[in-house]
Amino acid sequence: MNSRSKSALRKSNSARSAARPKATRASAGKIGQLPEWNLSDLYSGIDAPEVGRDLHTMDSECVAFETTYKGKLAEQTAGDGGGKWLAEAVKRYEAIDDLAGRLSSYAGLVHAGDSLDPAVSKFYGDVSERLTAASLHLVFFALELNRIDDAVIERALQAPELGHYRPWIEDLRKDKPYQLEDRVEQLFQEKSQTGYSAWNRLFDQTISSLRFKVKGEELAIEPVLSLLQDRDGLKRKAAAEALAKTFKANERSFALITNTLAKDKDISDRWRGFADVADSRHLNNRVEREVVDALVASVRAAYPKLSHRYYRLKAGWFGKKRLAHWDRNAPLPFAATTTIAWPDAKSMVLTAYRGFSPDMAEIAERFFANNWIDAPVRPGKAPGAFSHPTTPSAHPYVLMNYQGKPRDVMTLAHELGHGVHQVLAAGQGALMAPTPLTLAETASVFGEMLTFKRLLAETRNGKQRQALLAGKVEDMINTVVRQIAFYSFERAVHTERKNGELTAERLGQLWLSVQGESLGPAIEIKAGYENFWMYIPHFIHSPFYVYAYAFGDCLVNSLYAVYEHASEGFAERYLKMLSAGGTKHYSELLKPFGLDAKDPKFWDGGLSVIAGMIDELEAMG
Predict the structure, then answer these.
(1) How far is CA 104 from CA 97, 132, 392, in A?
(2) Which of 5, 228, 485, 512 has the greatest count of CB atoms below 10 A from its CB?
(3) Interior CA angle at 542 toward 540 and 543, to 5°?
């Protein structure tokens, strides 16, 4: 998951991420010693004097910026030398944004590393409050900038100094129809601390503190989720039942968090004038609603030939007609049982990257050499995985929970794809480096595909090739089918929330409806699964984010097909696309590869790649 999609100033509390926490149990054994990140490139610790210094600088710079520019943008920009004058203002704004990004990223990363430490939680909350308070002095800038007449802005952009920022200014002006008057915008920003940001934080701390009793042992959520991929069917069942029991005990809390955030979003959308529940996400992603609708319709229509067909095959491999929901991600009976040690995972990914582009591998290597990765499972650590770009004056950090499974290797390849993208895009600066989520997931999924293709080419044993291919199909179903089912669930929740609160029971009914549709008849949904919506962080932190995964996967399938048939120069064009950051629309970036996501048939092409792999599996028997 890409963790920072917009500038720190416009979304100062979006970083859901984590600084170097206390080392806990040793991460040796079969998987080897796992790296923990070193966040000293940001700050040496939560008590570092540099943190206080930078917060003070942030306060004073924001006040000075407001004093210098507020109420003057239209007049000064229209005057002689207006373009150069405005360019200086944007440059100052960008420098503040970079500093805000450093502070918010560090606080977020520390918190993701250990959300149970009271000192860390206080630090995270205090920094977030200070940044929000400081950024209130900057709210006027984007609003005033958008009120300047189009002709005046266009004339000012002829100045080379301001022309550099054209992509950011044009991007910003797309928000114009939805912006409110200054004091309302300030209120929205300030109230976020006691509104959605507080509920986000409550979700994180609640999930991290939950314990699940599996065969007499109390476990945090990540090890329990990992057991759903265990070779022992009784362990998978025990894990699913433990998840169901603890979720049931906490359903009222999660229902309240979900209802509150859905209502919060509804209020914001209503004030801003968004017509559809997902329109604000589409705007943020700079993607047209009809393109997303076409993607969703194509995927849902393909459920029978993708997930339904694959799970029927998988049930047959287990000698059954139907699989219980806890067996959905079970290792195949003929799959290798070895645990993949961390050094081997590193070698697999870097070798695959190097085969595509030595430059790409060199960037990925930095993450290992410089301790930019936090890999062990720890109590209080955020579940899942992400790559956080921090800010262009620093570098990204990757968080994952590595447990030596084949999927963990693919997660490493995925997050390093993000990391490479973020390093390359950093050259665009704090305002133009962030990439819309639709393209942010492209680099990550492409990294996975490179790694999979490399492993497949090196595997000679027929059964292991079958297992590898099946594993890739499962990953693609989880990335495409499952994420579109998530999106359908979110749409149902947010639409229904307009008419009143949803009980935990009703949320469970909606969840079972979309899951039944997407998984198909070969998956038997047992009691308890109705509450499995509770742990999905995207629903809380980034409403409607999930379709970006499906967008990225289908896009990469098409992109990889171009790569396989391309002559020299594909890698260079690909890295150039990543280096563009947020300076170009996705349609413009895809043009050199002959791809057009607005073509209704485009998505069918990406989905046919998955269907073709299932054809191959059927032929293997």
Answers:
(1) 10, 10, 13
(2) 485
(3) 80
- Is the pTM here over 0.70, yes or no? yes
What is the DSSP code (8-state) at residue 178? G
What DSSP element (H or E) covers 120? helix 118-135
Can you tell me whether residue 386 is helix, strand or coil?
A: strand
3-state helix, strand and coil shares in percent for the chain, rounded to the nearest 5: 65, 5, 30
Partnered with residue 373 across adjacent β-strands are 398
* Residue the block writes with tokens 């796992």: 34
Q: Which of 463, 432, 544, 390 is nearest to 164 (CA)?
A: 432
Question: Which ranges in 357-480 belong to alpha helices (H)?
Answer: 358-369, 406-425, 437-458, 462-479
Q: Residue 11 pLDDT more than 50?
A: no
Number of other residues whose CB lies within 10 A of the CB of residue 75: 10
Q: In what order do the strands lie in the sheet with 386-388?
A: 373-374, 397-399, 386-388
* Pairing outcome for strands 323-324 and 386-388: unpaired
Confidence of residue 22 (pLDDT cuts 50, 70, 90): very low
Which residue, among 264, 248, 284, 285, has the nearest Cα to 200 in the 3D structure? 264
Structure confidence at residue 7 (pLDDT): 41
> Could you read off the pLDDT of 298-327 as tens digits, one per residue?
999 999 999 999 999 999 999 999 999 999
CA distance 292 to 278: 10
